[in-house]
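Morning!

This is the sequence you dropped in the shared folder:
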Amino acid sequence: MIQVQVEKISFYPPSKGYAILLKEAIGERFLPVIVGSFEAQSIALALEEVQMPRPMTHDLFCTFLDDLSVEVSEVVISELLEGTFYSKINLVSQMGTTDIDARPSDAIAIALRVGAPIYASESVMEEASVQEVAEQPASPITAASSQDDTSQQAPAKYLKRLQEQLDRAVTEENYEKAAEIRDKIKKAQTETS
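The structure's back. Tokens below.
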């Protein structure tokens, strides 16, 4: 098994979904897994450690596991059959160990929430991995907003405005927008420190 980690999430125009790019921990291969927008948002929220006012489906599942004293020991993307990835979540409890079948998107979202390692089988990596990931051109919105008005405003005022936008996006459950704003906040904090 090869340990992988979520490198980034990119919009995938052909399916109008998202590509979760898993990079092997030791090595240069990427495993792109196409997921729906809900799953991509859930994974993005877990990556960004955004706390929602109400539990989302994956949060609810993790709460069930915790309340039942069941631990997620690992997630494995085990097979690729006819273009479909298959994965398993390994659960450990007082009653023993068991693997449950899961969609990779759900397994990744849960693993990120509980801090469990994510693995891919060597056969999956050999069949579906890529060596390089082409950068997507910035969307007009991203390109325009990257200039924003940081140069005209004091950094503290800019960060406060971004935080207000983030709070509003979370309240409106616009998680994709919330993840974008969170990235802007991190970038601004890095530039000002």
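Headline: The chain has two domains: 2-128, 140-192.

More detail when I'm at my desk.
O.
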